Description:
By secondary structure, the chain is mainly alpha-helical. The protein is about 65% helix and about 5% strand. The protein has 20 helices and six strands. The mean pLDDT is about 95.
Amino acid sequence: MKLWAGRFQKETDTLVNDFNSSIQFDARLYKQDIAGSIAHAQMLGKQGIIEGHEVEEIVAGLKAILEDIEADKVEFSVDNEDIHMNIETLLTQRIGDAGKRLHTARSRNDQVAVDTRLYVKQEIPVIIGQILELENVLVERAKEHLDTVMPGYTHLQRAQPTTFAHYMMAYANMFKRDVTRLEDCLERLDECPLGAGALATTTYPVDRFQTAKALGFAKPTDNSMDSVSDRDYAIELLSDLSLLMMHLSRFSEEIILWCSWEFKFVDLDDAYSTGSSIMPQKKNPDVAELVRGKTGRVYGSLITLLTMMKGLPLAYNKDMQEDKEALFDAIDTVEECLPVFAAMVNTLSVRRHNMERAAAGGFINATDCADYLVKKGMPFREAYMIVGRLVNLCIKNHETLDTLTLRDFRAISELFDEGVYEAMSLKNCVNGRKVYGGPARESVQKQISLIEEFVAARKK
């Protein structure tokens, strides 16, 4: 008989039973559910709501169940619907009437709310730790390539010279923001809903501050109706994870392009590539492609929760059971992607000469040529037009700005002299950009230091 079956005259139909059950996915909350139940039982005892010996029996029984679950000695039942009722049923079977007292002053509504918050509180630091490991990889790759010049792109067209180190720091700053967003989410969700009951608390003199403290929360939630109907923290987490996956996907797209024969800027390590079943020459960037593909999966989880919640009246509705599969899948996906992505970036080989060869073409020093004229007193828009004419001349004659003669330059403007070649050299183009945040060596070293400090502050 189900624990809630008092008023019902019929057994639940098998189809409904299977449809209603969530144990197949919420079983992973067993640790959180047992921790919440232990805190609740100890609070009930302290408040004199149940007897001290009953608290001891309940706590001992729950700890024994935890050991058995982790030893794979427990088989959960679909008939008991969810992890909460499965554990309560097991407890009652083992210790008798004392087990039946555990649910005093509690509902499954506040039970699932606290379990899910505890789970998210546990997983966010794991994800942050994985991001910080990726940051360490980016820092090391940047240090190796402070002077590796490559083209920077806009519209996927060669635009201005930069360095591989500068590129790595661009992504490092994206992931830095991801960490701070996750930290913000963790701070906001650090409130305990236990004791909210079904929606309106209870007439028993429960101490919500005690259970919040026992479970490691900063405080109890402030409104009981909001406590059981809030999934903002899950939606916020999925939003943060979607942004994180978007950054990983953009990086993946770069790597997929860079390791193609059309670019050949990098080579992926054989251990992080795959071959073709029919084409023996192929070396495919499957890790990057899978990360790019799994990004849509995490986006789907976010849309699932937003759509699920958008029309729900207060307080709890069964629709909210749909939060867990999406939440769990997104967390699992991110935690699977980050380590393998970091390892792929850590082991890839940079083809420095191909990057520099690409940087030498495409007129990416055209802005520097214009700036050279500006520094001699010419208005920028006039300089822009002159360099545009020079580029057009190069295209017609299959030249680059570097291969034009001084006579070619002076035929368009008398302001040009031998100094134009030094001004347009790729090394000077890069290292002349010493503005804070730019690609010059000293600027990138500062960016590296800032990321190292950011990581170190969170490793303490």
